[in-house]
Structure formats: C-alpha cells, structure tokens
Design brief:
The chain has about 160 residues and is α+β, with helices and mostly antiparallel strands. Helix content is about 35%, strand content about 25%. It is globular, with a radius of gyration of 16 Å.
Length: about 160
C-alpha cells in the first residue's frame, strides 16, 4: 500500500493582514470565491460543482454568503472571520477528495441526500448534493466544538458500517 503525503491546506487569509479594513478584506475573500467557484468551477467525480447564486444577499452569490457568515436566520447572518479565513479550503477539499485524509459519506437532510467531505485535522467540512448532471455546493464551515466533531465522526462510522454490512 502506498502511503499518501499529508494534505497541506492553503494558507488562511487573515483579517489582520488588511490593517483592520473589513471592506478590503471582504473584497479579497470574495475574489478567492469568485475565482474558485465562478470563473473556475471545481469538479467532483468528474462533474462540475456549481454554486447557488439566488436569492442573492446584498448582491452576492447565496453560496458565498452562506459559507462566510453564520447564524440560524438566513436573512440575518453575521460575518464569521473563521469561515472567511478559510475561503481557500472548499475548493482544496473538493480537489483533493480522493485523498485518504478526506472522509466522505452521505447523509439525508430534508429531501436531499448530501455528500459530506470532512478533514479531521483541519476540522473542516464541505457539503455537496448530487444534481445528476452536476454537484451543488451547499455549504462549508470550520468545526468549532469537539462535540460537533465527534458527532460527524460517529455519522461517518455509522455510514461506513452500513455500507460494508
């Protein structure tokens, strides 16, 4: 068996590198999203990964808003610096989905079957859904609590056990 090299995630984009200028920081973060998902769509299992644009939030793609802001009320989400810092992570995880450090499983959310891509070392998760001719990028976020991490790992183990049973 060939040992894979450890994944080295892209550098974070730090707010402090923008001298506290949130507007400049936000533009830089959006530029990465635009390049990674609008101008150059990644592929998962040979199919493009699309992002949801509508309904726009403040003139921005819905998916960008969702992966860089947090909160239960979709209309009143707040910017989340930890999510913004990791704006390079979603494409990286998708591009490296065959690496053994990316755990992949399916779960059900509402009527959708979701594909979960999770890197335990970085506590980072990407969620896609299969739309037959392409994949839809639903969300991505940093796992902040050990409880949530354990919950995800348990979900993964349950999925693998059921799949191999």
């Amino acid at each position: 068996m060939i040992e894979e090299k450890e994944l080295v995630f892209p550098d974070l984009i730090f707010f402090n590198d923008y001298a506290g200028d949130f507007k400049s920081y936000f533009k830089a973060v959006y530029a990465v999203f635009e390049n990674d998902f609008i101008k150059n769509q990644p592929k998962y299992e040979g199919l493009k990964v699309a992002v949801r644009k509508y309904p726009e939030v403040d003139g921005l793609h819905r998916t960008f808003y969702h992966i860089t802001h947090e909160g239960e009320d979709e209309n009143n989400r707040q910017p989340d610096i930890r999510r913004m810092e990791r704006i390079r992570y979603p494409k990286f995880v998708i591009d490296n989905n065959t690496h053994n450090q990316i755990l992949i499983w399916k779960n059900k959310r509402g009527k959708d079957e979701r594909i979960v891509l999770f890197n335990e070392a970085e506590n980072y998760v990407v969620i896609l859904t299969d739309r037959t001719e392409y994949y839809m990028f639903i969300t991505a976020y940093y796992i902040e609590t050990e409880h949530r991490k354990r919950s995800l790992l348990k979900e993964y183990e349950t999925y693998i056990k059921a799949k191999t049973a």
